[in-house]
From TrEMBL:
Presence of the UniProt keyword Zinc in the record: no
Protein name: Branched-chain amino acid transport ATP-binding protein LivG (TC 3.A.1.4.1)
Native source organism of the sequence: Sporomusa ovata
Swiss-Prot/TrEMBL GO biological process terms: D-alanine transmembrane transport; L-alanine transport; L-isoleucine import across plasma membrane; L-valine import across plasma membrane
Keyword Transport attached: yes
Amino acid sequence: MDQILKTVNITMQFGGLTAVDNVNITQSDGEILSLIGPNGAGKTTLFNILTGVYKPTAGQIFYHGENITGLKPYQLVRKGISRTFQNIRLFNDMTTLENLLIANPDCKDEGVFESIFGGEKLKAKRRNVVAVCESILETLKLQDKIDELACNLPYGKQRLLEIGRALATGADFLLLDEPGAGMNSMEKDELAQVIHYITKDLKKHVLLIEHDMKFVMGISDRVVVLDHGIKIAEGVPAEIQNNQQVIEAYLGKGIPDDE
Ligand SMILES: Nc1ncnc2c1ncn2[C@@H]1O[C@H](COP(=O)(O)OP(=O)(O)OP(=O)(O)O)[C@@H](O)[C@H]1O
């Protein structure tokens, strides 16, 4: 299996605090990888480094073998890396389709000259962009909500639309920050199906942060555990669930079912 992501001794310091400490992670092609750890473990900081929000204090990141350390978020999006956030960031007064269209780079790149003189070529390009976005809505089972304003979607569907916006950028690698946060168990089942479809059928790559252990253990091929910025364990879900250091990191109470 090809390696799609590799971090080498990634470190992030905020003043005297080391939020991420010499972390090495790898992700193979086709693998659903989850990042877990107690509050303050450094998960979001690592995500912010991987998506170019923070430049690491030390270490390197390789994507498909290319050193992408220090690239800006927009440069990483062009390389096919996109993310969602813990809190929903949709355009509430736009429809589901419009939310996807404005994330699509072909839509953004349309200049004034092209929009006036583009002719048939432009029309074909626009039709293609709409078709791509419609197929994303189908992937998310949101095709019947195509004209619905984002603000009128149920919460779980809004979270799916967030993933759709990341897909609409043309991304191959999706970093999902707590995609199941606030979802009920039915919505989480739907989310799991979507993530499964995106990775196993569409052959995209997913790295996710999630607090719901039942969800993580059900969907992940492999899990990486951070605690106080340090990688304390990695392995398949069954290994992680029985790892003494991981159990202790969660305050000695055992791994929670859902936080
Ligand atoms: N911009 C920042 N400036 C200073 N300290 C920060 C900054 N961002 C994060 N930290 C600190 O780094 C540590 C790791 O935080 P981070 O948000 O990455 O953890 P986390 O694992 O995502 O936690 P949670 O599960 O609660 O979201 C924490 O001690 C946090 O206070």
